[in-house]
Write a structure and sequence with these properties.
2 copies of one chain form a homodimer. By secondary structure, chain A is of the alpha/beta class. Chain A is built from 18 helices and 24 strands. In chain A, the strands form 3 sheets. In chain A, strands 1-2-3-4-5-6-7-8 form an 8-stranded parallel beta barrel, surrounded by 6 helices. An 8-stranded mixed sheet of chain A has the order 14-15-13-9-12-11-10-16, with helices on one face. Chain A has an 8-stranded mixed sheet with strand order 18-19-20-17-21-24-23-22, sandwiched between helices. The model of chain A has no long low-confidence stretch (mean pLDDT about 95). The interface between A and B is large, with 56 and 56 residues.
Amino acid sequence: MRTSIATVSLSGSLTEKLDAAARAGFDGVEIFENDLLASPLTPEEIRARCADLGLTVDLFQPMRDIEAVPEDAFARNLRRARHKFELMRRLGAGTVLVCSSVSPLAVDDDALAAEQLSRLADLARDCGVRVAYEALAWGRHVSTYDHAWRIVESAGHPALGTCLDSFHILSRSSDPKDLEGIADIPGEKIFFLQLADAPLLAMDVLQWSRHYRCFPGQGGFDVAGLLRHVLATGYDGPLSLEVFNDVFRQAEAGPTAVDARRSLLVLQETVGRAPLPAPVVPTGVAFAELVTPDAEPLTALLGALGFTRTARHRGKPVALWEQGDARILVNTGPVVRRDGTRLAAIGLESPDPAAAAQRAEALLAPVLPRRRAPGDAPLDAVAAPDGTELFFCATGRPGLPDWRADFEDTDREPAPAGIRRIDHVALTQPWHHFDEAVLFHRGVLGLHGKESVDLADPYGLLRSRAVTNADGSVRIALTVGAAPTDDTVHAQHIALATDDVIASARRFRDAGGALLPVPANYYDDLAARFELPDGELETYRDLGILYDRDAHGVFLHCYTRTVGRVFFELVQRDDGYRGYGAANAPVRLAAQHAVRALTGG
Amino acid sequence: MRTSIATVSLSGSLTEKLDAAARAGFDGVEIFENDLLASPLTPEEIRARCADLGLTVDLFQPMRDIEAVPEDAFARNLRRARHKFELMRRLGAGTVLVCSSVSPLAVDDDALAAEQLSRLADLARDCGVRVAYEALAWGRHVSTYDHAWRIVESAGHPALGTCLDSFHILSRSSDPKDLEGIADIPGEKIFFLQLADAPLLAMDVLQWSRHYRCFPGQGGFDVAGLLRHVLATGYDGPLSLEVFNDVFRQAEAGPTAVDARRSLLVLQETVGRAPLPAPVVPTGVAFAELVTPDAEPLTALLGALGFTRTARHRGKPVALWEQGDARILVNTGPVVRRDGTRLAAIGLESPDPAAAAQRAEALLAPVLPRRRAPGDAPLDAVAAPDGTELFFCATGRPGLPDWRADFEDTDREPAPAGIRRIDHVALTQPWHHFDEAVLFHRGVLGLHGKESVDLADPYGLLRSRAVTNADGSVRIALTVGAAPTDDTVHAQHIALATDDVIASARRFRDAGGALLPVPANYYDDLAARFELPDGELETYRDLGILYDRDAHGVFLHCYTRTVGRVFFELVQRDDGYRGYGAANAPVRLAAQHAVRALTGG
């Protein structure tokens, strides 16, 4: 199916928007009138630019407050329309969007609306264009798609059809029954289809629409359900995204356009119209890779955590540290800032690495070179939206390229010290691309998105959302700061699973490791809230262990100090416990700020 | 009256919050439990810190989900309460806030609620504290203040009273009648009063409360009306601010605390409880002062606009440029960055400059030295929240210090060239302090706040709100960028009023001035929307004049290029026209971006 995007969905000048849409692979665009008005290009130049970029101009939008008005007002509207139809001719736009009126002049008279829209369509036909009439959810007299269709139907004009917009329809009702009326519309009378999702907010629908729309799959609407109904009519026009979103308005147009098209690909797959390679859900975390300009602090930290340096890369300054099934690569290769220790890559165990990479590529993930150096095992890898490299791994599986083969064992054997595996990794996301990150991990990796939670940092609210596979063996917590500037403040971390967090924390401390100190007030509160076994609370207090409980189990966790942007967490998770200790996040974040204030870091 | 603020209203660590509250002059604080839990200070240390800062601990908050639960659950709640009352003793907090339950365990049984709250109050009394019971707007069974009061009344316990919260009351009803029940509560049974305002949003009340509260006078609630009712009961406890706001969470605590206390001072004045010096509303703009590292570009610009350099400062490198009643000072004194041309000060004609400054000082505006140098006229001036210096002027009025007296005339006479006066100045505000700026200009200067409008910049939505005096002779447009980082991108500007914008623009261009080019598409749209007299449109197109119309009149305006952060606007305003050409802002902003892209500025 052809895909299109409204220029209002993207940030920047009109030419930036067109370039971004084309680069992301869209077939066409809706030209939002204000973008055209503000552009120094003439309509002919815009048309030529689109043609050069391989974009069709699928829609010109919007025309407002046209129908069901007194005759003198309608005469003025026709005059305005004549100008706009002439503009569309110059622009090469064949269809115009007419929104149901919100004008105080409009009367509740379907016959008049049909008659005037018919006259508008006469004029449109004479100018070689056609009119797509859409019900705004807040239209004065026409606010539902079936009402708009009844008017279009009664007008019975070949140049007049309807436009369906998922936001206007789904914001008014989430009842699947209310979509059944779509079947009454002949596909050829649906002149256009605009798609947008939105988070489920209880708020004024106009504000909701103008500021909070998002791309399909990023909100709570059943956009796929609606699309199925529309496709069943035989509609064969473009799937077009029209998203008003305050954050996207500020974000770089390029990544937003990629995010947008990825959302349409996933949506098409959901309704059986995109032959994408099937998702290959990862089955575990093979490794996490840290890059650092100075291995010393990490070496000390990993040693104290009980990790052993078991192998080194044959061709690069990369060491493998192991404990149980937890594997950390420490890479001193890439040039980074002195404070630049960071989590650069994650290895994901994949049932079929090549297929996983093919799906990622089909969903517009940048593919990384399979072989970094001659002699390296060829590895499939892509970049996530935040730049983290995701390797699709087949650790120790015969017949498949193995990253481990690039490593030469040291003479040291792993000495198990309580840590079993990586419980989760937490990645701070660029502020403008949080929704994109969640959709990427769901669509590309086939992970499930969990609930979004607010975390109160002393200096602003953070938002966090985890994506996981079904058995919880892959968990990634995506977090975004309070403001666009905050991404350097909040660290990434690796949470290590242990069956006995007390023992692991003690061993770490005894080996010289410094645990994040937790205020005594926190433990007084624990004592108030829970009746813990004798001595337990004192042990937690001594080690800085935090405690959380949900309906299914207990979660115990503590934190190391931060190196560069990275810290470690030790977690002991009851099987049933579903969360990540969000209730304790304010205390942890405040403690980390306090340490930073002390150390000036 | 005593004033207090909840620590949750301010950003930072607990000690930062306390310091900021004390510096702003609050008498006490509400300690928000999470702030205490995250603090490394013991309750005793917090108590001592507050004492050192002259702050009382007026409230500890909140305790949740206490009442109307099965006996075993209530026993656990009492156990929890005992811990918290002990904590309050250590903290020196005499009152605890208990919010009406949202627990699924709670039953709809007022008698049980009263009985359990009474038992809680027994325990409180034994611990030397008292309980203030408050209805959350989203409480499970108790969600109105009168319902909470009925329960408190029927409990009849001396250590149990009610807490009134303006958000929880006014978010449920804006009907003044619904406040009349407050009169039924004896003042001594109102144990606490929490005040917050909020913008009038149609949204889920919990989200509204958690993210969008603001200080009284910054939203749409009649907080003063509520306060009058409460004071009429004889309530003599503190007025305390409890504001959950995503922006304040990120902002510097110091300015937020000042903003908070200013809002309470204005509120107290509104209800006749703060003997502030009366507002002295400015009657005109005496001058606008630009500072620049290089006078040359501004000299060329002002010359082309028809200004004449009529005087120079006797002691400083400041030139006065005049035309009609428009006066611009060009100051090359202060060291600034090379691109740092900016609007540094505004002179406001004041009926009583000394009284105006006294009010400003009483409302916590930083007072600037009256005399900058020996020999200078003593001038009353304060700093606005964005750092702009506001001079209260008495230009040419005998018996009052006159800024003009510091200037020595050049031999040049003003040569009137169409510009009559400064129509408005537009100031970009720091992102985190937009609400503060509006309240400052209203409270301190006695200006009226107009409606807030969104302006679509190509790279994000801006928000703008004008403040004016009654006759429109003082108009200041306050604008805030799309994100915290954007304040350097968006310029300040001075709009100059002319009776004939076409003539003024022509004269400017003929004198070598460069007007902001406006896209041809904009004029095609004007032609579609309005039937303008013959030739008019061509003239606008030729000069880059923008056109707007409201129910009361027409607004014509055009723009100069930008120097540093400053540009000028020429405006021709029909008397009745109320706005600032917001409809044209997207075109203007895009054109300015286009120029910047061309010039690399």
